[in-house]
## 1
Amino acid sequence: MSDYDLIVLGAGPAGAAAAIKARSLDLRVAVIDEAPAAGGQVYRAPSPALTATQPDADRARGDALRARLAASGAVLYANHRVWSLTAIFSVIAIGPDGPLTLEAPNLIVAAGAVERHIPVTGWTLPGVIGLAGATILLKAHGVLPGRRVVVAGSGPLLLLVASKIVAAGGEVVAVVDAAPRTSWLARAGAMLARPDLMAKGAGWLLALLKARVPIHSGTAIRAIHGTDGVESVTIGPVDRDWRPVGEAERTIAADAVCLGFGLLPSTDVTRLLGAEHRYEPELGGWIPAVDTSLQTSVPGLFVAGDGAGVRGADAAPLSGELAALGVARRLGRGGDLASEITKVEADWRKSGRFGAAMSALAMPPPGAAAMIDDGTTVCRCEGLSRATLDSAIAGGARTLADLKAMTRCGMGPCGGRVCGEAAAMLIAAATGWDREAIGQPSARPPLRPVPLAAIAGAFDYDELPIPAPAPL
Amino acid sequence: MSALYDLAVIGGGILGSAAACRAAEGGMRTIVIEQQTLGSGASGVNAGTLSLQIKRVRLMPYAIKGHELWERAGERVGFHKTGGITLAFNQREADLLHERMALKREAGAPIELITPARVAELEPNLSRKVVAASWCGEDGYANASLSGAYYRTLLEAAGVDIRERTPVTAIDRRGGAFELATPAGPVRATRLLLACGAWLRSAGAMIGLDLPVRARVNTVSVTERGPALVGTVVGHATGLLTLKQKPNGSVLIGGGWQGTGSPDEGRSSVDPATLLPNLRLAMFAVPGLDRFRVVRSWTGFEANVPDFYPLAGPAPGIDNAFLLGCVRGGYTIGPYIGALMGDLIVGREPELPLFDPGRFATEASAAA
């Protein structure tokens, strides 16, 4: 019998809420996270050297979350990297004290989201980082990405990152948003329903206006220039479908670029365990198919937070509670779980509207593939340009699996996490195939690259379980 | 009415493609029908090892011919003849090595025993715990992920029709021809070759055969690029390790450790419980691997029958139907035995004997 009823992967707002709720239902719970402390990306704990700095609202929420999780009685394995899982369910991780295997009949995956990249010329230069990466630098380490920063891409992270840079004393020389101003207005309905979050965004915007940061809507980076690092950035207009148009280019001196196009639900774990997925552009792309309590097609495997569809930190705790209720129901725990599930699900769906609207705002339309120049590196690990991938597509590649076999795209250390979306956009642009048909990068262990020695640990050769040799 | 082919091949792996090319060259109007894409099964996901030292004695003549064909394919399949070393780390393994390599040498493979000192000269980064070793200068590797692209070129040049992403859902016999039902419409052919690897059993059932085909689930891992450690193909006396470092610096680790899953489930998975000893064995053989990061492990189906020899010949009791699969060491041997099969189908005497599927009771119900 396993030590736990439930393992939660990820201690961000969704995972922590799931663990706390499950503890309140008297389940035995373990939580695993890669970071040194709970909080996830949005409530990431600052490095100890920074605790004297001015705490903001997110910091206060993060501290409260960490305190509640610690008091809940859930066992937190921080600093643990999960590299493989098997049904039903072994979680295999590497931590500060070596390998760790945990087992439980239920698993809630609250692994959050990863950045969506659209490669532009020069994006591989030092000094170019992701928008989400920039938030980690700023939140956990108080480090500015550069002295003169261009913040570019799409979605609400643009305003968050730019305002944090300004607040930390940096200079943002341009915010470059591919979405036209009208698409923000088109989402106003969902935003007005949440005046509190709207006010948060307005606060960011106000801070940028006050600092006289130029905000270019309907605009994208044409190229990032430099030899050993970023020196300047050329921007230009894009049409409603994000295709570069016109000659009205301008070049801005800068030494850093924060670049990102919204968030993709992190589906590594659910793919590895063979759950069914569907493509839902409004929620960031591929998401696991789930029932009313967020259980996937694999019995006992639940998802919560942005990994179930990007809805943001505000909706995340309710999804965690919902999944915890689902686990309790599956374990046959007492109480009126069914009506609570109905209620929490409704609350979650409502609270998720704002975040989903934000997520949709960041989502590149199909025309965005035109932002990638022929010579631009798409797959960084294998050094493959758009032209190389396009010629494989012309030669018959119709799925990410085909492209991988034909060009090695996605076979490097990133495992397709960085290039998979862009590669799929290129196939879609060339063939008109829908994203479901193009597929996802295949999930294979290890989920992140792991040194052989860390997996192998200490062992005695004579104790290796060598099977009988093959027939002669 | 759809066109009538002389030969329909189910399965676009190395075996099916090689047979189709030979049949087309012999004048047959041929089509290959593949449920996924060319070379996407075992042909494309195996470790690409071309080692005579791990081939079965009786299959050695076929393996030697296979090596020649891959060498001829050269760069198109990423062929490298590096030589290979097989290692034994204790007396039991040394005995096994001596016994097996002697027989393989008799069967024609240019294998010699070498001393641990010679191993250290050839490959200074291998473990110093070697007690016995063998060497074969013919050994090397190719890049299995190029199998599909390579055979696509050959099939197109031979004028073979290719239908991919097309599962065959039923096989009927009408008016002296096979009619294959597919979602894209029926395909008709006077002859039929089943060459669909781990799916041979289910395809065989469509023509009333109960084939004793099972599938092994082999595991392969690859590391990120790293500094040069080894130049040859490294094996283990038991056959449970194959290891080679590609020119780009990544290291490929195989050895036939078993994952989970089955062809009927449609998927297979790495089993961490067998991956662990596989990686430990690799690290023991090449200690400098400890700091290489494993990027990806994956699995593929390798079909076999109880005697672990190929199924290659006429389908028992069914005129004009043929079976080809379950070739142990199929990546190496596939191009050659596939061509032999093509010869048989066009009515030529194959250069080397094939492996009659009729040696098993298949209870042909002649339903087709």
## 2
Amino acid sequence: MSKLIHKVCVANRGEIACRIIRACHKQGMSTVVLYSRPDAEGMAVKMADEAICLEGTSALESYLSIEKVIAATLKSGAQALHPGYGFLSENAELARACQEAGIIFIGPDADAISKMGMKNVARAIVQGLGLPIVPGYNGDEQSLTRFQKEAKTIGYPILLKASAGGGGKGMQIVAKESELEAAFHSAKRNAQSAFGNGDLLIEKYFSSIKHVEIQVLGDEYGKVIHLFERECSVQRRHQKIIEETPSPALNPQLRQEMGQAAVLIARSVNYVGAGTVEFILDVENLKFYFLEMNTRIQVEHPITEMVTGFDLVEWQLKIARGVALEMQQDDIVQSGHAIECRLYAEDWQKDFLPGSGKVVVWKEYQASGIRMDHAVVESGDVSIYYDPMLAKIIAHGSDRAESLQKMLLALSKTRLMGLTTNQSLLQQILVHGQFESGSYDTGFISKFGDQIKTEWQAKVNSSNTQNEIVMAAWLYQWRLRHNQQALKMGLPSGWRNVFYGPQKDEFELAGEKFKILYRELVNSSARQFEFQINQEWSEEGNNTLLLLDSPADDVIYEMDNRRLSFGVGQYQDEIFIHHADLGVFTLTQIPRFPELEQAASANSYRAPMPGKIVKISVRTGDKVNQGDELIIIESMKMENSVAALQSGMVKDIFVSSGQLVEKNDQLIQFEGDM
Amino acid sequence: MTLMQEFDVLKTSLVGQNPKVLENYKAMLELCGELKNNLRLSTLQGQEKYVERHQKRGKLLARDRVEMLLDQDSPFLELMPLAGFEQEDMTLGGSIVAGLGIVSGVLCLINANVPTQKGGALNEISLLKAKRLDEIAFENRLPILYLTESAGADLPQQAKIFNYGGSAFREITRRSAAGIPSLSIVFGSSTAGGAYIPGMSDYIIMVKNQAKPYLAGPPLVKMAINEVSDDESLGGADMHSRRSGLCDFLAQDEVQAIKKARQIVASFNWPKLQMQSEVQEPLYPAEDLLKIVSADVRKPYDVTEVIARLVDGSKFLEFKPLYGETLVTGWAHLYGNPIGILANNGVLFSPAANKGAQFIQLCNARKIPLLFLQNITGFMVGQQAEEEGIIKNGAKLINAVANSSVPALTIMIGASYGAGNYGMCGRAYAPRFLFSWPNAKLAVMGEDQLVGVMEIIQQEKAAKTSLSAGKIFDMAKGKMAKEVLRKRIGHESSAYYATSRTWDDGIIDPRDTRAVLGICLTAIMQEKKDNKSSFGIFRM
């Protein structure tokens, strides 16, 4: 008999919280969302029927506190708790605490979670089923010497992972023995801060593999089905950014084998709810190995939903109510092809450095076969405290080619400005031959990242792209000024009865200066300008263009019989120009009247990003050599080292360990010129 | 719905391919091209070697200073750019760049010395131009921003300028008392009399290591009191900022000085320019003006065609269209502001003069500013006209113009001869602004008429003399003299001759007329701050 659930507590944030709330509402369940201070203005809080603040900013103080989560759920009167993904979603303690408190935990029971959560136990189970596993070590003994010994046995390169972790967070590749010690300590620190548990494991590192996972669903009555695979081989920092289904690498037989293996594994732990069995696929001989099982809903679950027609979150809720899976495995078919791209706030040009800040412009693209899962709010902030994923763009087509086409168009039409994102990287990947052919592997980014960067840069540099972008910025700024101008009177801007020289605007783009000289011409039907970029004004003739009418967040102009269209936005002194194919460019306007300030000294170190100071490696008066580590800043769960650019003596340290810093806050001053 | 929408649209009968129209267009385009060339000459700012030397010192040219001072993208109406044109001992523009422009959202008058033109020394034309600027500033309550760098009086011409030159300083302080601010940026030398331009101003900015206002430079000081000194200690910006108190704001360089000036203007607490709501452009293109108007003032044209290309929506409410029809009168709007227009369509007869007088009275009663479009050969002459009382009726028009209390704008769009000039608000009748088209003529009468009149008088004189002395009038000699006279009068009647002597505020391209009127109307109409005090600001 199925139970009634009137109210569900959503113990998560961002897009997945919104996704769960929607699914709950569809089934008539009201929702209460738990939130931390920085998320108070988030979309989930607005969408939920109730919201309870967990107080505190860091994940550890809020979403990761079992005590707070249970107390809030009880207070809210919710009968069930949905943990989403990440945070406590694979924490057996929470499942157990729910059970004790009489709350339905939407997911498998604590036993299944802990079995699959402990990698060595999971591996033993899978091995016991006669299924292949990846060579590795996951023992209780966590000493460096033991790790050194085990790594040698497995053979380098190896992978260090957090035992309690998932999703690739804090993973490190160790190529050779000499690197192990440093990596070991850093990985431990990361594991401790991300999962509250510093235990690590070792896995054999394959250089050319695909990452293929199988979605499973199990009900209370012992039935387990699978909903086919997702290929998630496009990864950076060992985290997925593009997923697709069906995988171009699987044949029907292999698909069936892997599906059956996944069902077998889930069944062996009496799995209830939605789960994912991850495999690595050795491309050469089409052999798969069990990697791990994720006992929660996955970020990339929507592509499975698109091709199978199953609403996985809805089924999570149904299963939690005790509803039986009435469908048969054979009834489930893959229809067409779906792909998901994850839009991240990160700088793919700079080693995927995570970013934060204000979302200045957000425009999602709506079209048939396009789905966007996100919690982005225009003029909302992306904080430094959590994962920098902004949105998931999902495209569904009748075949792989069609869904790739749809995705590329969706990416060019999606606008997110104000933060540095990986949008243009996603676009470049989609048109990369290796990706198009489907033969890519998990090394795709590391293999082709530089090539993609170079090609992207070449596109930016070629055929005046930069000039066109700068012109969009200029026309955008011109229009803003024009709209505010008193004494407009329909005169051409900068009207003169005695012409002496053109008007001037200067911008900086990617460290380069662009000077635009311009003059509006008298033209009753359109705004026509003559102009020069980085060239002298000519009495004989200059370039001309027409500025066309458009909404305020577009700039459209016509030049050489070509119509160019850009998305535009501005926050403080940063101007954002969205180029449909090449992403968002950030420009600053060089003021007409420069400040008198002196240039910053090379002896001064400033925070490269907002974050928390986790380690200060020097003391006042220390003599340091070029390249020495000065400070470590943690941002978006990543440790970033600030190193000395030149040798010198530390004169002053302006921060202390544990302190939160903003971008450009001064950290350290060396002796020498201020 | 604005009131203007009630007015009717003027119809046009201009046919593009008409031979007369094509001829007009060709001739007027030529005149406009000539104007453009002359204006380009006025932007040269002195001999190349002085310009280069100035720039090598890291200094900005006067026009670059002005451009930088103005709000980006804002309009600038330069005044009297061709003052001194073709006058031998004068400089083109009078070594001053001047005009109406917007600085920090405030409409200001700018008066910038051109230091690369004879050291920025002021000649007689400079004086006339500066006096006219003072007049404009006072009448229209406009702040003046002085960009000062001048060697002072052009000494060889001192006799022409010294006596009246003092009015410049008097005017600054009278405006100060009337609450109209003046600001000086001192970029360089500003000696003796020159020192009083900043000296009298409400605000002074000096550029470090450049500005040096003093009453007497090192040589004169040595001569006068046998004191050995240098520029910096006598009048350096630093000294004036820390010791004499002459300087209010010390700027590191020219750009910073201009930035500071913009900030000070922003602090004037001056009425901001009103945002104009969307205005209706005329229905017909301004380019047509060159096709309507004849380059030869002897050929008449229909002035309503001109009005249709100047006013909002080409909408016009004509007053008394059936009476005195050689003077077109009526109401229209310019950039949303109501305006009463008086425009000539031929010689002024008594009814036309009377109608004009009545119309001016109506505009005074309604507080509507006036726009005169002058194309007038004069009041009608002859027995019939005299009998109809043309003097009496003309006097009514002149009376009305002279005593009108609403602001007036005048554009010379053709002939301006005789008392017609007065009745149609010529310079002597103090319109707030007066501009000429390049085809305009200004004289007591047309050169043919004048030569003809002279000929008749001389023939009569000769006849008398020859009768008594038995001499015969030498026809050939008379013809040659006639040609010389015609040429001279023609030259002296030209728009360039007039503008060179600051008899107008500039020659404009007819196609710019609407823009020029708009800026002038803004200067006239904007909300005025009345903050008089009994004294100008004393410099402490």
